[in-house]
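Posting this for the archive.
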Amino acid sequence: MNNKLYFKLAATNIKNNRLMFLPYIVTCIVIVALFYTINNLVNAEALKSISGGNFTIDVMKFGSILFTVLSLLFLIYTNSFIFKRRKKEIGLYNLLGLEKKHIKKILLIENWMLAFITIFIGILMGTMFNQIVGKAMSSLMNVSLTVNAISLSAMIKTIATYMIFFFIIHLSNIKQIHSIRVIELMKGAQVGEVEPKAKFVWALLGGISLITGYILSFKVNNPKDDFNVMFMAIIFVIVASYLLFIAISIVVLKILRKNDGFYYNKKYFTLISTLLYRMKLNAVGLANIAVLSTATLIVMTTTVSLYFGVDKELNNAFQYDVSIQNTVENQANQKELQDFIDSNKERFGIEIKSATSYRGGKYAADLTGDEKEEFFLLLPLEDFNKLTKRNLSLAANEVLLLEDEVTAKLKSITVEDTSFDVKDTVKDLPIDSSLADSVDANWMFVIAPLTGDLAHKVGLENPIVFTMFQDFNIQGSTNAVNEFSHEIAKKAESIGNVDVSSKSIYRETLLVRYGSLLFLGMLISTILFAETALMIFYKQITEGYDDRKRFSIMKKVGMSEKEISQTIRKQTLIMFFAPLAVALIHLTVGLQLVTNIIGIAIEDMGLIVLGSAVCAAIIYTIIYGVTFIFTEKSYKKIVEQ
């Protein structure tokens, strides 16, 4: 055969199989466009110039790797569906006299045609996406961000990556042709019509795995410390999801069939019979959809929760709008900064409120004797009395502690084998004590005389470690507060040896960080749902061809069009929404685990996580439902032919 004929056959094959190829091509184009967009962001100079921009670039690099893996899995899985439906067509070519080398060449040309179409249009769409992405990220991060439409490095990486992927797909197809006999190719997808057996042991293992996974998820209090438990919980739930469809569903249907009063009702007789075969053939596909749906919902919930938890994290981390600190030996520098604040506050139209200043030092030691190091801030008694306008006194070996669950029970603390008596605890401190609620470390606040034994023990009198702290709030418009905070930070940087922490500046950093995570979450959710939707579509098409003969027989034995239509509707609804129901149950049970994971960064996020999960579930269910409407039409069209 000449090359022109090969190309003609390849183009004709794609055209004749457009029902399967068109959704595949469209989805591939979107995935290529998103991949190009992510890799363009990795190289965006605009991101490097903003606060938290390097974190965003790191997130996008991780997203690029994750996107690459998901894309390959997507292409391999969907190609398997298409090839399964085309086995009979390929077998017919073989019977008509084409050798396997000719078939391989046709498939190679088809593959590169699809590759060229998807990569070319995908990159073209990606260049248009970039402008939309820039505006979307600017809105999410609350910064001005300009992203270049064309990136040569991103373009080369996208072309190289997906050319390799399509080559892997071609090798997979060639391997299948070599390993399958002609008679098997002619049978195509019509292999294995034996009634499924009820696997009670597998069903029992599935139930045990599901319960075990759920119980383990509730036992995870700190994901960092309980990582192995969390990992095992996820594995058990995934295994249970597959066994739920592979074994448990068959067992339940068989039990229903043994109930004569239920099974021999005309409403359920055909439904139960057809579901048995459909579950056997599509159990793994349904489980894949359930797992992907769960992953999508969790990604959506987590990223949305982090983004809308910014203010919660700010309130946890900052009790004051601005905190300034430096060592006592550099107090002249701090005075220069204070003079700058006093002389410029009127220019910005703001007022300084709740100002406090005190001395102290931050240290680490095993204070409680539990062989775990605690971090603590030592506040001189003299400064405490000055701030609270009290006149407390302590002996040289006595201390006061800020009260919490741990310190309320302590009678003494120990530093380097020396014990100090806890005279009393105080309910609150007139200083920034937000570190007491730190999720990264155990912080304690200790009050002791400047001339006492504890201060001497840790060397508090040393000017290098003896630190001056200054905290205050800024009252004014949001823009004025933000501008003045930046001016204070710039001045401190020019002076040197003065550290400034600003609530307003940190908020910008958090918005950039969590905005980029939310954006990446949206992209990952898009590809996960694209995989899910296409998986659903091909499953429906496959089932449509499998069910067409069954419903034709039912029509011949006397079932009316209405009864057949009702049966189709019921079984389609069950098969379609069963994975979604499982995913929503997994999400509901896993909310506590998601809350604990987010708690590593932000505490007290229960309500925000719940609200984000509800929104994610509603949005996902709506999109899932729309997918059902479109795929059901294709299914019914095939069945009714």
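DSSP finds 19 helices and nine strands in the chain. Strands lie at 322-327, 351-365, 374-380, 398-402, 412-415, 418-426, 443-448, 467-475, 499-502.
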